Amino acid sequence: MAIGTQTDDDEMMSEINMIPFIDVMLVLLIIFIITVPVIKHAVNIELPQASMEKVLDKPENIRLSVDADGNYFWNDQRVDDTDFANRLTAAAAQEPQPELHIRGDKAVRYERVAQAMAAAQRSGVKKIGFITEPATP
Question: Are 125 and 101 in contact (CB under 8 A)?
Fold first, then answer.
């Protein structure tokens, strides 16, 4: 329904009737108000509280160096094979267990590095890593 008077002339009405648009917008607003609380994509859970404090001190990593002659160096201190096995057993018993970082000379026989890895496995060391230098172009 248009607001205004109708004349006998066949003129086009140039005013836009806004009432149907307002009705549609109100209906959409009511639909959104009702459906938004229903559409919830999260599960209600209570998250645990965590502090930023350090809980466990990580033990110092063990640096095992094998020189070109096949000698073992435990954190830059020379050790023989029996002392090496005893130190590995003591390190494996620590909680949390330290990591064993093996640095082998490029001229050392692979056998000595393999013996060190086998001794670490026998003693129960779980984390073993190899330290190398990046290749230079």
Answer: no
- pLDDT recorded at residue 115: 93
Q: Please tell me whether residue 42 adopts helix, strand or coil conformation.
A: coil
Nearest to 124 by CA among 95, 103, 102: 95
In this prediction the pTM is 0.56
Q: What is the tens place of the pLDDT at every residue in 50-63? A: 555 544 556 688 99
Closest CA to 67 of 33, 25, 31, 112: 112
Instruction: Report CA torsion sign: 85, 69, 99, 77.
Output: positive
Exposed, middle or buried by CB within 10 Å (0-12, 13-18, 19+), for 100? buried
